[in-house]
UniProtKB/TrEMBL annotation:
This is tRNA (Cmo5U34)-methyltransferase. Transmembrane segments: none annotated. The keyword Methyltransferase applies. Keywords: Methyltransferase, Transferase.
Length: 222
């Protein structure tokens, strides 16, 4: 797998403020998660790249009795998640990669939010999806959110995103971030993502959410 993206220092401490500012309808998407997983009623839920624990917090506050395992390679992010989720006995948080989890435990559902665009499409995206699939029961849902689109779509959607950003964000910061999104992250087209999911043993994903460059899908393990 290619180099893992680690969030540290200001990137970690300011992560929650960052997603609030840069992902329109972020909380609406998180509000969807408990509803999307209600029909499957998973007992064991795997949150890959859990970050500061935002999606886990949304899931546990809905009163579900899921056992949730959250993993992230960034120690500072995991520390924030532990502080945020202290007191929930049904949550296990680990500073780990998916490969660190044993294959013998199977999960009934998984989430993968804002992770894939940090991995190159050189086998790394596919490997992550395959490793998740190995740990899911047949028919288990996988919910994903990621920066997605071909180069022209990304460019045009970034123009719209710029218009919707808060006036409080300095112009220099906006320009740097937009350039990073367009030229330094490893986003792929929706068709390519679908092909990767199928190759990894999942169904063709169904897009249910889009907010500019951010798209969300559901798929299931075949």
């Amino acid at each position: 797998m290619s180099k893992v993206e680690l969030f540290a220092n200001e990137r970690a401490s300011g992560y929650d403020q960052f997603v609030e500012a840069w992902i329109p309808n972020y909380h609406y998407f998180l509000d969807c998660l408990p509803k999307l997983l209600t029909d499957t009623d998973p007992k064991e839920l795997l949150v890959v790249g859990c970050g500061t624990g935002n999606e886990i917090q949304k899931l546990v506050t809905k009163g579900k009795t899921w056992n949730i395992t959250g993993i992230d390679p960034s120690p500072e992010m995991i520390q924030q998640a532990r502080q945020k989720l202290e007191g929930y006995p049904n949550i296990v948080l680990a500073e780990a990669l998916i490969q660190d989890l044993k294959n013998d435990k199977k999960y009934d559902a998984a989430t993968l939010l804002l992770v894939l665009h940090f991995l190159e499409d050189n086998g790394s995206k596919l490997e992550l999806l395959k490793e998740i699939g190995k740990r899911l029961v047949l028919g288990a849902p996988l919910v994903m959110l990621d920066i997605t689109g071909d180069s022209s779509m990304i460019k045009e959607n970034l123009k719209i995103l710029r218009l919707l950003l808060s006036d409080d964000i300095p112009e220099e910061q906006i320009s740097l971030r937009l350039n990073r999104i367009e030229n330094e992250l490893f986003h792929v087209s929706e068709d390519r993502l679908a092909a990767l999911c199928v190759e990894a043993g999942f169904e063709v994903p169904v897009r249910f959410f889009q907010s500019m460059i951010y798209m969300g899908w559901m798929t299931k393990k075949r």
